[in-house]
Design goal:
By secondary structure, this protein is an alpha+beta fold. Helix content is 40%, strand content 14%. It contains 8 helices and 7 strands. It has helices at residues 2-15, 21-28, 32-44, 66-78, 89-98, 108-114, 122-133, 148-155; strands at 48-53, 60-64, 87-88, 162-166, 168-171, 174-177, 202-206.
């Protein structure tokens, strides 16, 4: 929602001294045109003012007005978050469904490669491959030491190793930070593996495998 993004910018201006339009775009991960329109609207509401120009022609430095400070402090009482603009929760659910293992094509070669370092019969590998290809639940059971954990750890190796997630979510009017640089490993792009054009509010991470005991 636009109001939610405006409150986000207000908190950013409260925490940073005279950021430029480019600085704001980089922080909240939204396109320049959208941010410029938002800042013009906030200036017309007497929430921000221009304090100078920066870099390229037409980029301004911004600061809060007296009215803006009062509004920003009210926003800060609701939430202290001032990172990436959030993605609606329903958009996140759509992305999860599109990237589900149920939509992936698992080949015999992928299964063979994933379990190449384990001594498993062809019938066991076939069962594992069918379970993965069908997106079905799989229960590994047996006495301690029969390879349950080793198999579980390698199951994730048969799946594409990157997924896209939002940096933050909008849920019921609240912003929830989803991307955690400590828990998530962001994909590193290079000249041979360039980053695709994408909404900057999303980040590509290595697919995680979570192992629990029961």
């Amino acid at each position: 929602a636009l109001d939610q993004v405006q409150d986000l910018v207000m908190r950013l201006l409260l925490n940073r001294s005279r950021p430029s339009g480019a600085d704001i775009c980089e922080q909240i991960r939204l396109p320049t045109a959208l941010v410029e329109e938002l800042m013009r609207s906030m200036k017309s509401q007497d929430l921000v003012g221009y304090t100078g120009t920066r870099g390229q022609l037409g980029d301004f430095e911004y600061s809060l007005t007296t009215k803006g400070y009062e509004h920003a402090h009210r926003c800060l009482q609701v939430s202290s978050y001032c990172g990436s603009a959030p993605v609606p929760f329903d958009r996140y659910l759509e992305a999860v469904a599109r990237q589900s293992a149920k939509n992936l094509r698992i080949t015999r070669n992928q299964v063979q490669a994933a379990f190449a370092d384990l001594l498993l019969s062809d019938s066991v590998k076939t069962h594992l491959g069918r379970a993965l290809a069908g997106g079905r639940k799989l229960i590994l059971y047996g006495p301690a030491g029969n390879g349950k954990t080793s198999i579980a750890e390698r199951l994730g190796n048969t799946l594409p190793n990157a997924v896209w997630i939002p940096r933050a979510l909008s849920v019921g009017g609240e912003i929830v930070q989803l991307f955690d640089p400590i828990q998530h490993q962001e994909v590193q792009w290079s000249t041979t593996h360039p980053k695709p054009q994408a909404d900057e509010r999303w980040v590509c991470i290595q697919r995680q495998t979570i192992t629990v005991g029961g």
